[in-house]
Amino acid sequence: MTQHDKPQPLLRVENLAVSFDGPAGRVRAVNGVNLSIYPGQTLGVVGESGCGKSVSALSTLQLVPTPPGRFESGSIWWNPTPSSETGSSSETGSDPVSLSQPVDLLKYSEKQMQKIRGNDIAMIFQEPMTSLNPVYTVGEQILEAILLHQKVSRSEAVDIAVQALADVGIADAASRLRVYPHQMSGGMRQRVMIAMALACQPKLLLADEPTTALDVTIQAQILELLRKLQAERGMSIMLITHDLGVVAENADVVAVMYAGRVVEYGSVHDVFENPLHPYTQGLFDSMPILGSSKHRLRTIEGNVPNPADLPSGCPFHPRCRSFQGDEHCTANDPPLREITPGHWASCWHVDGHEQGKATRPDVDVVTQIHA
Amino acid sequence: MLTYIIRRLLLMIPTLIGVTAVVFFVMAFAPGGFGGNVLNEQGAQTEGDEARRIREYFERRYGLDQPAIVQYGRWVNQVSPVGFLNTSQLTFTDEQMQAMSDVIAADDLLPKLGTPRALDDLVLNMAKYKDIEPTDAVSVVRELLVDVDAGLAWIKQLSPNILERDLNRVTKAETKLNQQRELRSLLQSQLAGRQRILFSRPAIKWPDLGQSLRGRKVTQMLAQAVPVTVLLNVITIPIIYCIAILTGIYAARHRGKWFDIASGFTMIALWSFPVILAGVLLISYLANKQYLWWFPTAGLHSLEADSMRFLPAFTGNGFERGYLLDTIWHLVLPVFCLTYGGFAVLSKLMRGSVLDNIRSDYVRTVRAKGVSEHDVLFRHVFRNSLLPLITVAASIIPALFVGSVIVENIFSIPGMGKLGVEAAFMKDRELLMGTTLIGGLIGLASEIMRDVLYAMADPRVSYE
Ligand SMILES: Nc1ncnc2c1ncn2[C@@H]1O[C@H](COP(=O)(O)OP(=O)(O)OP(=O)(O)O)[C@@H](O)[C@H]1O
Ligand SMILES: [Mg+2]
Predict the structure, then answer these.
(1) How far is the CA of A132 from the centre of ligand 1 (A)?
(2) CA atoms within a 13 Å half-sphere pointing along the CA-CB vector of A13
(3) Pairing of strands A69-78, A204-208
(4) Alpha-carbon distance B405 to B209, whole Å?
(5) Beta bridge partners of A46
């Protein structure tokens, strides 16, 4: 532990690049993503469909199917050391090396990753309807995770599973263990997914659009539930979503992604008050604001670029409203730079981009008033 | 679940009626008609009269002088466990027979008309035909024989197509006693084998598959043949499934690697290779004295199999292979012929199914829990991948029985397939209907079994 004064991020993704070999050649799905997540923090990741949100999250667990996927470069530093702010250590059982130094998850072997998955880092997915194995009961599937990572007897594991189901607000949890996934509603299944993910008390939860497939009331319930559980356990969440409203309500820090990279990064406050990147601004303009009827919603012109055939220079320039035919934009890819302290953007047109520092995005705030 | 199975079993009845009806009517309206070959063959060897008599006998025995629909109705009644007794199913106790013989012996006329045996037969046939007590049948027969004209009229009624020539024989006989003797033998030949459904006698009875043209009971013939075919298939099915599942999983695991490509290629080649050709080639290479004489050519056992001990053993005269090994030795080539087409298809199916599941969402969840690849495959993917294999089981099993027809004929194995083909060639109606019925039963039963297995394997399926 070198810097006792400065807390370390729990997870730091550096220059992550992942490509897929497809019939149309190699596709760069993720192209130099940088981000970090601090203990107890919620990082909202937003961006259009296909911009690489899921692939970034899956990379963290090495769950990108290889082949066709391929890690081109980058590292994912995992540092489960309790930050000096939160203080108390309960890590007695862990590997002493991982206590002191961040480890690169991309360098981990399959065996080592299996110890991390579901135990330190858990993930929940977009499709609750298909994400559970149809031929096993809910109980068997939750027990599998518990028995895999915790040294408990079966009956103790059952108790843990019942508690996990009760924690996600499932009434009559003990009898629900014997139910098959097809006998549950979508919202119920997503609760089961969350219970399964959280049964082993992970430090980081990767939530990949956990509510997209659910109707609005259930969405709100699930997000509320995640907020509550986060406050109780102090875990970190990477919340992937299309919905800026969800980000505003749940996230501390926002990463806006476009075409496989992060184009804007900052605290929710900074990004929502003062969106710098034209793409982020476009996203806000296309979002309805309650109680305001003064202007029509504006959509972002054009389509998401084909990742196999990205435009030269700034990948956003063909759709950008600040673009006036300047060669700078078509020739050079703007790097992500810290424009104001704690607020990054990658656009030549942003005031101060020239002077901005090319640091890695890293915002250590937990602003949300949880629970 | 139980109600579902019962419902399915009940539904089998109309299906079986449909299946057997098709076979029955195709046979009935086929050129030459039922039994045509046998009758013509036997007829060719005998004089016209004799041939005609044989044909008439068969017609009476199988009711061929009636319309096909009536014939089929009779067959269904005979096979159905619930139905009406038919005259051939009536039996009499020893006391009844004794009483009848006593009455005949005490009669003043009857003993003069023929041997006691011939008279007993005639009276018994009459008793069955009229469904009356044998002692009562004695007086009926006596009435007919005493009054020759009444007797002739009754025969005309019984057999409308009877030739005048036969009737004339009776009237032309010189003495009254000779007339009565002729009448007795005519009566006996017209009653013999004649069957009538007794609608007055509904009953729960053993299904009766009737008598083959060759004279044996069809039930007996099937009782010998069906176990052979079932044995063949009981060996074949697990082999098919084991090979298919193992190669399918392995190919999917190592997708695109050499095993996947090689097995894919081999499977398609095997699948498209005709069984008949394979059988003939195997026999001519592996079971040929001039080539590799590794396997026997035909049959299920060696000639001396019956005198063999069961297990292989070393005795004074060296190694004795024993009954068991001998049977296995005979089964190698036929079982190979039956399996290779099946596992080729199923292996492809298994591979595709495993690949589909490996890419599915739930497997991603399982991996995200930290489950090892081995457990992902064998705990999660495996069970889900079996579902399509269970689905096709219902079509594989009947297909195997069809395959047995070819294989049994190539390797001269005395199973159901061989019997069925022979029956079709001979137009042996009862035998063919028997094999059709058993084949249909097996097919339908395997479908029910498939559905039950499916419900056990997949909790989403329920038959409530
Ligand atoms: N298994 C795969 N094989 C090939 N290409 C893939 C695979 N997974 C993702 N990709 C590609 O990677 C790119 C990014 O996909 P990703 O799933 O990360 O998008 P996303 O941002 O999560 O979108 P969405 O909001 O629709 O979930 C897409 O262009 C997609 O086609
Ligand atoms: Mg996604």
Answers:
(1) 21
(2) 26
(3) unpaired
(4) 21
(5) A241, A256
Dump pLDDT digits (tens) for B329-339.
788 888 888 88
B370–A65 CB contact, under 8 Å: no
pLDDT the model gives residue A295: 61
Using one digit for the tens of pLDDT, what is the confidence trace for B384-402?
A: 998 888 888 877 877 887 7
Contact check, Cβ <8 Å, A117/B367:
yes
Q: Report the C-alpha gap between B121 and B383 in whole angstroms.
A: 66
Q: Is the peptide bond before A315 cis (omega within 30 degrees of 0)?
A: no
- Residue A16 CA, ligand 2 centroid: distance in Å: 17
A114: which chain B residues are within 8 Å (Cβ-Cβ)?
370-372
Tokens matching residue A247: 């980000």
Which pLDDT tens digit goes with each residue over B178-210?
888 888 888 888 887 777 888 888 888 888 888
- Segment holding B165, helix H or strand E: helix B164-172
The answer to whether the CB of A43 falls within 8 A of the CB of A237 is yes
- CA B354, A146, A63 angle in degrees (round to 5)? 45
Q: How far, in whole angstroms, is CA B16 from its chain's centroid?
A: 13
Name the residue of chain A whose CA is nearest to B384's CA.
A135
Q: What is the mean pLDDT of residues A40-56?
A: 90
Q: Are A205 and A123 in contact (CB under 8 A)?
A: yes
Residue A123 has pLDDT above 90, yes or no: yes
Instruction: Mention every residue, 6+ apart, whose C-beta is less than 8 A from residue B356.
Output: B385
CA distance A67 to chain B (A): 11
Contact criterion met (CB below 8 Å) for A210 and A168: no
A164, A232 contact by CB (below 8 A): no
Residue with CA at minimum distance from ligand 1 atom 30? A50
For residue A366, the distance in angstroms to the closest alpha carbon of chain B comes to: 27
- Taking residues B304-315, report their average pLDDT: 67
Given a contact cutoff of 8 angstroms between Cβ atoms, the answer to whether B72 and B25 are in contact is yes
Taking one residue from A and the other from B, the number of pairs with CB-CB distance under 8 angstroms is 74
Query: How many helices (DSSP H) and strands (DSSP E) are in chain A?
Result: 12, 12
Residues 6+ apart with CB under 8 A from A215: A187
**Ligand 1, atom 12, residue with closest C-alpha:** A29
**Whole-number average pLDDT of chain A:** 83
Question: Which one of A61, A65, A135 has the shortest CB-CB distance to B368?
Answer: A61
Question: Whose structure tokens read 């999250």?
Answer: A57
Phi and psi for A46 in degrees, rounded to 5?
-120, 160
Looking up tokens 């009981």 gives: B234
10 Å Cβ neighbour count for B308? 19
pLDDT at B22 over 60: yes
Q: How far apart are CA A63 and CA A76, in angstroms?
A: 13
Contact B422, B222 (CB under 8 A): no
Under the phi-then-psi rule, with left for phi > 0, alpha for psi from -120 to 50, and beta for the rest, what region is B43? alpha
Instruction: Determine the Cα–Cα distance for residues B112 and A7; give it in Å rounded to an integer.
Output: 127
- Closest C-alpha to A37, from A284, A253, A226: A253
According to DSSP, residue A365 is labeled -
- Cis before A134 (ω within 30): no
Cross-chain CB nearest to B370 (options A125, A130, A148): A148
The answer to whether A196 contacts B366, with C-beta atoms less than 8 Å apart, is: no
Q: Would you place residue A1 in the very low, low, confident or very high pLDDT band (cuts 50, 70, 90)?
A: very low
**Which residues, listed in sequence order, are joined to residue B204 by a DSSP beta bridge?**
B82
Residue recorded with tokens 């027990």: A143
What is the structure's pLDDT at B38? Answer: 56
The mean pLDDT of A7-17, rounded to a whole number, is 88
Task: Supply the ipTM of this predicted assembly.
Answer: 0.86
Summarised one tens digit per residue, pLDDT across range B251-289 is 998 888 899 999 989 888 888 888 888 888 887 777 777
Per the prediction, chain B carries an average pLDDT of 83
In angstroms, rounded to a whole number, what is the distance separating the alpha carbons of residues B247 and B241? 10
pTM: 0.77
